[in-house]
Amino acid sequence: MSPTAAKTALRVHHLRKTYKDVVAVDGLDLEVRQAECFGLLGPNGAGKTTTIEICEGLTAPDAGEVEVLGLRWDRDAAELRQRLGIQLQETQLSDKLTVIETIRLFRSFFRQGPEAPEVIALVELEEKSHSRVGNLSGGQKQRLALACALVGRPDFLFLDEPTTGLDPHARRQLWELIEQFKLAGRTILLTTHYMDEAERLCDRVAIMDHGKVIALGTPRELIKSVCADHMVEFSAGTRARPVDLAALAAIDSIREVRTENGSVRMQVTELHRAVPALIQELGRQAIPLTELRTHSATLEDVFVTLTGRHLRDE
Amino acid sequence: MNSNHPLAQLTLVRFREFTREPEALFWVFIFPILLAAGLGIAFRNRPADVLQIATVTPELAAPLAREKLLDVQQLSLADAETALRNGKVALVAEPGPGGAVVYRFDDTNPEGRTARMLADRALQRAAGRVDPLVSSDRLMREPGSRYIDFLIPGLLGMNLMGSAMWGIGFAIVDARRKKLIKRMVATPMPRQYYLLSFLLSRLVLLVLEVGVVLGFGALVFQVPVHGSLAGLAALCILSSLSFCALGLLIASRVQTIEAASGLMNAVMMPMWICSGVFFSAQRFPAAMQPLIKALPLTAVIDALRAMMLQGSSLAQLAPQVAILCGWLVVSFGLALKLFRWR
Lengths: 314, 342
Known about the structure:
The structure holds 2 protein chains of 2 kinds.
Chain A: H1 3-7, E1 8-19, E2 22-33, E3 37-41, H2 48-55, E4 63-68, H3 73-83, E5 84-87, H4 99-107, H5 116-122, H6 138-150, E6 156-160, H7 168-183, E7 187-192, H8 195-201, E8 204-209, E9 212-217, H9 219-226, E10 230-236, H10 245-249, E11 254-260, E12 263-268, H11 271-285, E13 289-296, H12 299-307
Parallel strand pairs in A: 3-7, 3-8, 5-6, 6-7
Antiparallel strand pairs in A: 1-2, 1-4, 8-9, 10-12, 10-13, 11-12
Helix pairs in contact in A: 4-5, 6-7, 9-12
Chain B: H1 6-19, H2 22-42, E1 51-55, H3 58-65, E2 70-74, H4 77-85, E3 91-95, E4 101-104, H5 110-126, H6 147-177, H7 180-185, H8 191-221, H9 229-250, H10 257-274, H11 289-294, H12 296-310, H13 318-338
């Protein structure tokens, strides 16, 4: 293994995949370093799943190169399968098997790895060991799916939308598990359309849209590079008497102003100056303020700023 | 084999999925028994029916009463006519002009025609007729030649087809629909083990399925097995493998359970009708016979009947064995070519 390969867990070069006339992945380049948690963030249809399935060797690309752990799918598929842990979107494990039977089945495919009870303990399903999969809750099923990805003690973990469809409590539980694997020094590539998930779990994030990476960096860097620190949203005025937006944009600490569904979104550098200035300006225009919200800028705001759309619009 | 071997684990999963599905247990084990019992009772061999007839004079009633297969009543002419019209009697015998006899009956009714023959024979003999030819009857009611003996091999063949095709086809399409096949190929699992596990579990279940139907036939209806049990076992295994291959072919690309059900029924329905499960396939026109003979279920049932009822050996059944091998090789080859692992 070359020295650069040792530091890079995944290298994707000029990847392209077309389904009929839809370009799912459009000349994508990616690099995931060893022991980092890398997130592909984007709305549905951005090409995240196609990308991760090509990296997992389940889908053949039309063009481009993929190197995982210094190995290639065309030459080293058998070795790669042993070293990767994979969780797919929407897999329904057999309802009639118990948790431990399912884990034993998956464990039997790998040459090494922890024993079934140990894996079950890792995902905190000990009490459900002998329950049928059909009787598990959504969060428990998702943890079982994660366990199936861990049975071979993988060097590289691929998680495709691990918390989609879960309630907030189950999501937080799963996040804690994924954080433990990060601490254990595993490399993780995950896809998500939840910006809070990417911010919490990922060391670096690639924001994808229409099959391309439109921004790459740590969540902090991305937020800094694209937006100011804070976001202010308010509702005021009517169709007949709209707010004079140009006057707002002229205020010193207010950066970008845009309207959205009748409310106004502004990027703001210094909240303690911008809010009084906003209220003063609305007073001058004699328009009453009906609603005011502020929050620290998030990856969602980055996506909105870059594309003009929300992550979950589609 | 080590129980942690992937093939052992995959096969265990097949058994667990099967035994934890009560409906599957019903269709494979209970249904064929209910069917055999029901049909066995409905078509049981009964002693020949005694036919009800009427006459209007004591002179005719006396000789007719001597015929054991006729039950004679003496009625007035009006009552006799009513009884005939209502179907209470199959025939009315009345004196005609000049010592002759007149039979009234519906010649489109088989009972009427039989009653006519029996009544006429009884009256002719009473009048002094002597039959020139001596004849005697030998009744065929022993095991091996009844309808139930014909039926059990048919049901066995139908069961072999149904359980193999549904067992494999349904399980594979269901796993594909749930993206479970895709998940499996994302592991280092050797793909041939996945398919092999279906065949292994099928062969074990086969022993039970065949045992249940044959055991029921033997215990309740004394249906014989004249051929060798080893030959019968080999024939059942070959049949099951051929139907497994056909099931695999049907399931090779289908994505939904509905589409799979439709295809399965489209393939199996013609065989249920044409292959001689319930009645002889010879009843279909001669032009259709080569086609019917080429169907796998026809080959299976013909071979099973020959083996069980006539004691034929596997070697004597070479044409049927060749047909089954042909279906096995062609279906399996095509299935492997078309199979979609996702």
